[in-house]
Write a structure and sequence with these properties.
By secondary structure, this protein is mostly helical. The chain has five helices and two strands.
Length: 169
């Protein structure tokens, strides 16, 4: 059996079992590894405690809040991944777009030079033509992403120039 750790403080209403060492969330006492008999004895004594139900409700609520926080973080990470998949996001700054352009240029240079994996794949598949076509398509896609991002920067520059000209009049 894995570790059964309980709060040994009989005056504490917290009556949960943990699988790791730690401290009681209610009173701060160090959790103690207990066997079946000692655990049953502590359980019986703590069930008599007047705040036992309230402590259990607090623990349940804390776990619910922690789960909600984890779900919120997971959703936030997923949303960031979706934004990264987009070629252009209206909320991106010019510097972020420039960074994406440089990253795409680096990727493109890597495709043109070829990779060790591509060379190994050619040896294993004995069909270099298909791999070259695939690499060519990937290069074209990367080039298009670069052009789209550069066009977005130019569009933004044009908008600011037009606004400055309108303001002068």
């Amino acid at each position: 059996m894995l570790g059964n750790y309980r709060c040994p403080n009989l005056d504490c209403p917290w009556n949960e079992v943990e699988s790791e060492e730690g401290f009681c969330p209610e009173c701060g006492s160090e959790l103690k590894k207990v066997g079946i008999r000692e655990g049953a004895k502590i359980l019986g004594e703590k069930k008599k405690h007047p705040d036992a139900k309230a402590a259990k409700a607090r623990v349940k609520e804390a776990k619910k809040m922690e789960k909600a926080k984890l779900m919120e973080e997971k959703d936030k990470i997923e949303a960031e991944k979706q934004i990264q998949k987009r070629v252009i996001d209206p909320d991106q700054t010019d510097d972020q777009i420039k960074d994406n352009i440089m990253s795409s240029l680096d990727d493109l240079a890597g495709h043109e030079a070829g990779t060790k994996w591509m060379r190994i794949g050619t040896l294993l598949s004995f069909n270099s033509t298909e791999q070259m076509i695939g690499a060519g398509f990937k290069a074209i896609i990367d080039q298009n992403k670069i052009l789209i991002r550069q066009n977005e920067l130019l569009r933004r520059q044009n908008e600011t120039i037009i606004q400055e000209l309108k303001n002068r009049e």
